[in-house]
Write a structure and sequence with these properties.
Blueprint: E1 27-33, E2 42-47, E3 50-56, E4 62-66, E5 81-83, E6 86-88, E7 95-96, E8 102-104, E9 118-119, E10 121-124, E11 127-132, E12 154-160, H1 164-172, H2 176-180, E13 192-194, E14 197-205, E15 219-227, E16 231-238, E17 243-255, E18 258-269, H3 277-310, H4 326-335
Antiparallel strand pairs: 1-11, 2-3, 3-4, 4-9, 5-6, 6-7, 7-8, 10-11, 12-18, 13-14, 14-15, 15-16, 16-17, 17-18
Length: 343
């Protein structure tokens, strides 16, 4: 199996048939993990159809901005440096502060209209989340802070050719779970909508897959939360094993019908140990990392099965749904709010 840290260049095959009739959605989208961005670090990224950079200033704060210097267009993600609180262009070493103002000009002459366009960024639970929305409009909702969970310890990403809404709809397509993934699922509880968030609960019985030895024959209670179309969390409780797990599913559009899908997992033991405190802390950390990796490998296997469908799937604006698939229609109605007329 490919490493959980596989490169996003592990790309899917294109398909001419998969052309969702959807634009870019508004919301928060992941540009990476906090641990990938040290102090002074600069990372090139792509968000929708825009090149951007994320960087961390000397005060430890992460920022995001459009990638090209407003002076002559050099890409700040390739050779750009952080000095103090300024992001320096590799071409003429013009420096831009966190508010986008040009604060450094080695020639002594500041281009009067050179201002770097910022992108709202939040650092939440070890994730770097950037806002996409109409220009000059502040975010109208915030990403959730999961106070009882630490940052993910296992993650994976890959490029695929689909739309973020297709990935999110897959979560509410319960009938495909026993058919494609062979996961018996009980009928979920009714979904609860609260503005940009929709939640539901379901129970899944983990079958005897070789890959699922840790989960075999265990009933898992799953709490699913969607916050916009870029943030999906699945909290999984396995009482029989004494562990809870959190899976982040993070589709980030990078172009028309193209996205990077990131999966990230954290684990938390729910049983107390009789070991001495110092030993218990180390043992628990190692056990939680092992659980997180095992669950990530399981999630990757299922994601690859889904990607095999998405790569050649055509998005139907008026699908002919069957009885029991009402949740898909409910999700689509909820998702309309993320496609404002300005988009």
């Amino acid at each position: 199996m490919t490493s959980p840290h596989a490169s996003p260049e592990d790309s899917a095959h294109p398909s001419a048939g998969n052309r969702p009739g959807l634009g870019y959605p508004v919301g928060w989208f992941c540009l990476g993990l906090s641990r990938q961005l040290p102090v002074g670090g600069v990372l090139p990224r792509r968000l929708m159809d825009q090149d951007c950079v994320v960087y961390r200033t000397q005060d430890g704060v992460a920022h995001a901005a459009h990638a090209h210097c407003p002076h002559l267009g050099a890409h700040l993600g390739y050779g750009g440096k952080v000095e103090g609180e300024a992001l320096l262009c590799p071409f003429h070493r013009l420096g831009f502060g966190p508010d986008g103002t040009c604060t450094v000009a080695p020639s002594g002459v500041v281009p009067p209209r050179a201002r770097l366009q910022r992108i709202p960024l939040r650092e939440v639970n070890g994730l770097l989340l950037a806002w996409h929305g109409p220009a000059d409009t502040p975010p109208w909702f915030e990403p959730p802070v999961l106070a009882h969970w630490h940052a993910p310890t296992a993650w994976w990403c890959r490029k695929t050719r689909t739309h973020a809404q297709v990935v999110i709809e897959n979560t509410f397509d319960y009938l495909h779970l026993p058919q494609l993934h062979r996961l018996p699922v009980q009928r979920p509880q009714p979904s609860v909508v609260d503005g940009p968030t929709i939640t539901t609960r379901l129970r899944i019985h983990a079958p005897q897959y070789p890959l699922l030895r840790r989960f075999a024959n265990a009933m898992t209670d799953q709490h699913l939360t969607l916050t916009g179309l870029g943030l999906h969390t699945t909290e999984v409780d396995v009482p029989r094993k004494g562990v809870s797990l959190l899976l982040w599913t993070l589709p980030t559009p990078i172009g028309p019908n193209r996205l990077i899908l990131r999966l990230a997992v954290a684990a938390r033991l729910t049983r107390h140990s009789a070991l001495p405190t110092a030993v218990r802390s180390l043992a628990h950390s190692a056990a939680e990392r092992a659980w997180a990796r095992a669950f990530l490998l399981t999630s990757i296997a299922f994601a690859r099965q889904d990607i095999g469908i998405w790569d050649h799937q055509r998005y139907l604006t008026h699908p002919k749904l069957a009885a029991g698939e009402e949740t898909i229609g409910q999700l689509r109605y909820w998702a309309r709010q993320f496609y404002p007329a300005a988009e």
